[in-house]
Specification:
97 residues, Immunoglobulin-like, five-stranded antiparallel β-sheet
Length: 97
């Protein structure tokens, strides 16, 4: 749980390897919000989605930081590491001020 307006980092606890493709998804529909190709260091963030515009940061260890959280950022997040078929789920609660 995080207070609205604060930053939160969803921590990856799996060691990232050189040829991994890391994908973050949000919500029941699994909307792609961020991905990183570790080998090429190519990062893409879904800034088209207004819920996350200019507030996502994907870290080299595959953790995802959401800055200035809003209540609409609450929900399920899934981290997928392609190539190893590893995944982690997070439930984020955001409480109003």
């Amino acid at each position: 749980t995080v207070m609205e307006g604060e930053s939160v980092t969803l921590q990856n606890d799996v060691l990232v390897e050189r040829d991994d493709l890391i994908v973050w998804r949000f919500g029941d529909k699994g909307i792609l919000i961020a991905k990183i190709d570790v080998e090429t260091k190519e990062i893409s963030l879904n800034d088209v989605d207004e819920r996350f515009k200019d507030r996502l940061q994907l870290n080299q260890n595959a953790s995802l930081t959401i800055k200035k959280t809003k209540t609409e950022n609450a929900g399920f997040y899934e981290l997928q590491i392609r190539g190893r078929e590893s995944s982690q789920r997070f439930l984020l609660s955001v409480t109003g001020e």
